[in-house]
Amino acid sequence: MDGPQIYSRLTDILRDVFDDDSLEATPELTATDVDGWDSLTHIRLLLTIEKAFNIKFSTAEIGKLENVGDLARLIAAKR
Amino acid sequence: MKQLYLELGWLPRAPQNFAARVKSLGTSQGPLGREIQSLAASALDLNQLIKLAKAIDKARAAGASLEPLIPFRLAILSNSTLDLVAPALVASAARHGIALEVIQPAYDQVAQEALDPYSKVNAAKPDAVLFALDYRALPLKLSVGTGGADAVVQGAIGYLQSLRNAIKANSNALCIFQTFAAPPELIFGSLDRVIPGTWRSLVANVNEQMATAVFSSGDVLLDIATLADTVGLAEWQDTQLWNLGKFAFSDSYIPLYADHVARTVAAVRGKSRKVLVLDLDNTLWGGVIGDDGLEGIQVAQGDARGEAHLAVQRLALQLRERGIVLAVSSKNTDEVAREPFMKHPEMLLKLEHFAVFQANWNDKASNIKAIAETLSLGLDSFVFLDDNPVERGLVRELLPQVAVPELPEDPAWYARTLAAAGYFEAVAFTEEDIKRAGLYQDNAKRAQLQQQVGGVDAYLASLDMTITFQPFDAAGRARIVQLINKSNQYNLTTRRYSDPEVVAAEEDPSVFTLQVRLADMFGDNGMISVVICRPNAPTAWEIDTWLMSCRVLGRKVEHMVLREILQHARAAGIEKLIGTYRPTDRNKLVIDHYAKLGFTQTGTDDAGNTHWELQVAGTEVETAPMKVVSRGFDVTAEPSLA
User: Fold this and answer.
1) Is B244 near chain A, with CB under 8 Å?
2) pLDDT of residue B462
3) Residue A10 forms contact with B (CB below 8 Å)
4) Range of the domain at A56
5) How many angstroms separate the CA of residue B82 from the nearest CA in chain A?
6) Where residue A1 falls among pLDDT bands split at 50, 70, 90?
């Protein structure tokens, strides 16, 4: 799976988790840009991503994520 | 079989248009309960549960009626994060007929909320309070080997007792207590079980004493310890999620946990199921009694398949002993269906265990309705167990109130799947319960089935069936021979032919042969019907053989077969079809086969055979909702789509 495919999957997941069909996964997107992206939804988002890509994040990796770009790179590295 | 619990394997998968249907709830008029319950009836993942819960909360806030769901207000006291659990509970409760409202105080305010008469929980006057505590909430100080373990356990029980008394005094809500799942990390290893003061020993003792206290007090028990054991402690306890977000257990199991809470709440409201309706062939035994006979069905110890079906019987029998009413709905001739219960030595279930025994050729939705009327119980008390996905689909479609578990391919898992669904969850067990199964039995007379549930045609259309006609050929031969020699019930003449005889029919140009296959949305049923017509007079075909698998009964396959025969007859210049019904002790099912298809009876002979004929010209057969594929007929080559 390459970059564009990961972003397209992430877009679907973001829309599903935040229940907002206008969301678009971009490298610069951060939690502050999205309504309802609080610490709890953040965990739910990561859990959904883990299941969708069949990967597991470590606690340290979760702590270091700054934006969707970090997330996509981490997913790519794990696959 | 981990997936069974993880993915709620007894529920049908979520519909493709789930999200769209949830969205359209907002624009619906009138009571939303049925649509909500139907959406909740499938196996939803956490995100889907949250979506549905949001829609329910929104509808409630907008003042929409959630009828016929029964309102229930549940407060939750917990030492863990509930933000994902609470919506999962709301959606799962709808699955069980409950319009749940969750009262969720601030994080980790258990004692404060219970003790303060003006707390959020007490002020809300909930119907029930769920103590969703995990082992970390208990005042348990590890005291390995110091001899103070008993006091520690007593301290924990005392703490729980004081919370309960406070809730009782302040809001008088029903109290629901969860048992505790122990952490999987051991200190000694095996000895943790016996050395006082280890987590394993402390938690086991607390669970034991709490369960006893709860059961005798009229409070309600929710056995999370057993649930965690069932799926595996290592799966249940997720330390990373606890550290990250104070989740008491793995998010993967939130749907399962929520369903368990929901079924408990439903049981409190008397919504547990009371009747188990069982299919017979390939459900209570392996094989088809009408075709395989008493010696052919698999229901013996020592045979893997037989033991799987015996496990279903054993579970049904145990359920009956605790008061669940048993009934049978089977597509069979009554006497044939009763035979194994009376004569097979290995059968655990006997006729006297059933309150109602419905073996006939009607559709199962009509049968279950008749059983409900006979027992004077609502359809929402019913569970229907059947190996056949088409029967399950029909009952779900026509009688959505009836619970119909999905079953895996392998009968080895039937009993476990039925048990995992938790349809018969109880919050109490009384003398009445033990007597109930017998009571219903005394009152029940065998239901007479006259009226048919409407909508069967619509359901058949939704099956997306394709019927394929071909003449006999080498590829189909083995199955043709098997069907000719095995089919007993839907078999007009019961003529058995060997392989060379079938080859002879195949190669004789004056003989018309048909092999028929049927596929539907559930898969390919394979070859399900065989016909052989032999020339009689120059312009007549004698239907020498006509048989069909009972698996596809009630789908109008026989009508489509006649239609196909007529087309080929016309093309071959045939004017008349001649049919014979030769009665055996197995084929009463088809005694009216030719009458129903519009043939005229021409006589009965001394052997009891009835003779029939049909004029080819002018006979039109009503088409059934299925796609027709006709191939391999070199002479006539009709258009393949009717």
Assistant:
1) yes
2) 79
3) no
4) 3-78
5) 10
6) low
Counting as low any pLDDT under 70, the low residues of chain B are 1-2, 145-146, 432, 436-439, 441-455, 635-642
Q: What is the longest distance spanned by two Cα atoms in chain A?
A: 31
Q: What percent of chain A has pLDDT over 70?
A: 99
**pLDDT, greater one: A3 or B352:** B352
- Closest by Cα among B508, B568, B632, B551 to B288: B551
Residue in the structure block whose two tokens are 């306890």: B237
Q: Which among B407, B405, B397 has a CA at the least distance from the CA of B363?
A: B397
Q: How many domains does chain A have?
A: 1
Q: Where are the alpha helices (DSSP H) in B96-220?
A: 110-115, 120-124, 149-170, 199-217
Q: Which of residues 18-77 of A touch B (CB under 8 A)?
A: 19, 39-40, 43-44, 47-48, 59, 62
For tokens 């938690």, name the residue: B203
Q: What are the DSSP calls for B307-376, one per residue? A: HHHHHHHHHHHHHHHTT-EEEEEEES-HHHHHHHHHH-TT-S--GGGEEEEEEESS-HHHHHHHHHHHHT
Instruction: Give chain B's end-to-end CA distance (angstroms, integer).
Output: 45
Can you give the CATH number for the domain in which A27 is found?
1.10.1200.10
Is pTM beyond 0.80? Reply is yes
Q: What distances in angstroms separate CA B190 from CA B186, B194, B226, B360, one per listed residue?
A: 8, 8, 19, 56
Q: Which of A47, A49, A55, A65 to mutate to test the interface with B (most CBs of B within 10 A)?
A: A47
Q: Which of A17, A39, A59 sits opposite B243 (nearest CB)?
A: A59
| CB B106 within 8 Å of CB B81 | no
Mean pLDDT of A21-38: 91
Domains of chain B: 70-268 (3.40.50.1110), 275-458 (3.40.50.1000), 464-630 (3.40.630.30)
B251 and chain A in contact, CB less than 8 A: yes
